[in-house]
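G., the chain you wanted modeled:
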Amino acid sequence: MLIESLKDILEIKKDEIEIKDRTTLKKLMDELIYKAVFEADEERKRNLFLLIKEIAKACGAIPSSIQGLYEEMGRNYPGFTVPAINIRGLTYDFAKTVFRKAKEKNVGALIFEIARSEIGYTKQRPLEYSAVILAAAVAEGFENPIFIQGDHFQLVRKNYLSSPEAEVNYIKGLIAEAIEAEFYNIDIDASTLVDLERPSIKEQQRPNFENTATLTEYLRKLQPEGITISVGGEIGEIGGKNSTPEEARAFLEGFKETFKGDKGLSKLSIQTGTAHGGVCLPDGTLAKVKIDFDALKTISEVVRKEYGLSGCVQHGASTLPDEAFDMFPKAGTSEVHLATGFQNIIYDSKHLPEDFRWQVYSFIKEEFSKEKKEGQTDEQFIYSIRKKGFGPLKKKWWDLPTEIKDQIMTELGDKFDLLFDKLNVSNTLHIIRQTIKPVLVKKDFNIEKLGL
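Predicted structure as tokens:
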């Protein structure tokens, strides 16, 4: 029935898809993306995802690199901080909420991202994630460049120390998969390899900048013609000691000496006092975090003025108090990563049925009991592990009644109202249209497999 409906609103030609009825298509997208995500046949699932993505491109929602904007930021900082949004659960409804608020506020500068670790525990491979984001754009009529990012494509230290080649090859494979899924923004994180026992700052950073350069060179060979993927580097592992200008210079100088290519990095992630997910106290409340905004401002100026980067990136910020967010543009921060705070809104919503919440908690307490650390209270354990309740129970989350999801999305929408204003990204669509020239990369799918 769904496929028959598509025949009435789409015309699939050899080189393009023509949309005959956008209004009906928007209404149909909820059903189409649901069918794709939960399709049992893997080949049919893949073709459904590719069809959805080609439909989105035909509607003007085109996967793009944010490189052009970041190059402009390197020349002249425009006074706003781009939010990079990690979505772990209720991804389609969540993304629709973001696009709806973006349209209301004329926001063009925003990124959707997913980290290496999140891809695993949320059970969202890159192709699925990009298809769901693009389906949401179609449903909400968002017809602008879509920035999808691989966040923390991270070399795991213990894996690297035991087998460097295998760990680097794993990240290469992830990069290739992400680019094929049209992630045209990728953050490489080799900061885990920094060795503070070495005698000089440059030598401490050497494993970091050498591996970042190697992976950037690899990535550049895979990027589609006409697209320069925006690549981020990182010098301070989030949750560790705060970064310094000297470390930034050592890393970027080392990268410049090592990297063989024309386009290097567009931004630099640093540590200024945050921790991923925030710090949960024994009673389940979050500890207050003090960010070193002076360091953020100083290092952003260094990387912008001396190296032409867009500025610094702040990770682990979503659990900060609301009044802190307007400090990021004032400090010249080019990008801020937001994840756990949104997860908290979903789990702690008064609209999430109590029996469903405890069904999820019971599952994760049993499934991940071995991950409970010595001395952790039950509240701390649940807070630290509940992110893993989205992937295995994905269908149960998607199948929550529409009225419940709508109420939760209203709460998320209120948060985005605040964030877009605080980060100064409202009314940024014009600068996106000035600096970003979307490039259509056609992905072939099997029409016969879909019955079209």
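The first helix runs from residue 2 to 9.

Shout if anything looks off.
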